[in-house]
Amino acid sequence: MPCAKVADKCSVNWRKSDCTSPMPTARVREAVYRAIKRLLLDGERPCGSRLEARQIAQRLSVTVIPVREVFHQLAAEEMISYVPDQGFFVPTIDELRLRHIFEHYRNLLLIPIICSSTDSPAILEDGSYPDQAAGLFLQLASRSGNRELVAEISKRNDRLHPIRRFDPHIFNDTALDLEDIVAAANDDPSGTKLRSAIERYFHRRIAAVQQYIRLMTLPTDRPSSP
After folding, report:
1. pLDDT reported for residue 9
2. Which of 46, 119, 141, 197 could form a disulfide with 153, with the two C-beta atoms 3.0–4.6 Å apart?
3. Is 99 exposed, middle or buried (0-12, 13-18, 19+ CB in 10 A)?
4. Contacts with 35 (C-beta within 8 Å, 6 or more apart), sequence order
């Protein structure tokens, strides 16, 4: 992929000399970060696959230095995993771990219900289902006024994005799920209905962990976000 194309995709402008410089500039590193993160969010690499720094650097027309730096950053963000003496991998998720991820995310979202303000209405933004879900839950977290909680929800959104891509292939009413949460968030100051809507949303997904794992491990025909 030519350097200019990477810049366009990442909404960052850079000079071709930046791409091959031994010491990558901040804008090159940011563009590489966005490109690799998008690759992960889109589920382009299956779970358990190894991430080859040279291969990705060649694809992005950069040196391996910014790619390796980004790998370490993404590992710290738990977007990828590092195995000593083996390298970086797309994390492997089994049924138990996915269940725990859903339960942890649900519990985080229940915190703002206890201490939130309803001054700002919840809305569904335009975009794919994974983006809509992420945006809605980030709005709910923001109501708490707790920046650490917002940062944690944002981080978990990134981890769940590749998984949420499978929701429309498991459930036929994903839009209704989110609409129910929006309605409960806006119409019930006590938070009772919102708690029930969130618990119902995650109960369905926890009950479907086997289907998620099956879809995530299919060798071909990986679904795209509608």
Report:
1. 42
2. 141
3. middle
4. 6, 9, 10, 60
Q: Which residue ranges of the chain lie beneath pLDDT 50? A: 1-20, 220-221, 224-226
Residue type, 27: R
Predicted pLDDT of residue 207: 98
Residues 13 and 31: their CA atoms lie apart, in Å, by: 9
* Element spanning 87, H or E: strand 87-89
Choices 3.30.70.360, 3.40.50.720, 3.40.190.10, 1.10.10.10: CATH for 3-89:
1.10.10.10
- Encoding tokens for residue 87? 């390298």
Res 99: pLDDT: 97
Residue 168's nearest CA partner among 133, 126, 120, 121 is 133
Q: CA–CA separation, 20 vs 3, rounded Å? A: 10
Residue pair 79/159 in contact by the 8 Å Cβ criterion: yes
Residue boundaries of the structural domains of the chain: 3-89, 95-216
Give the Å distances, CA to CA, from 83 to 75, 90, 91, 105: 10, 11, 10, 25
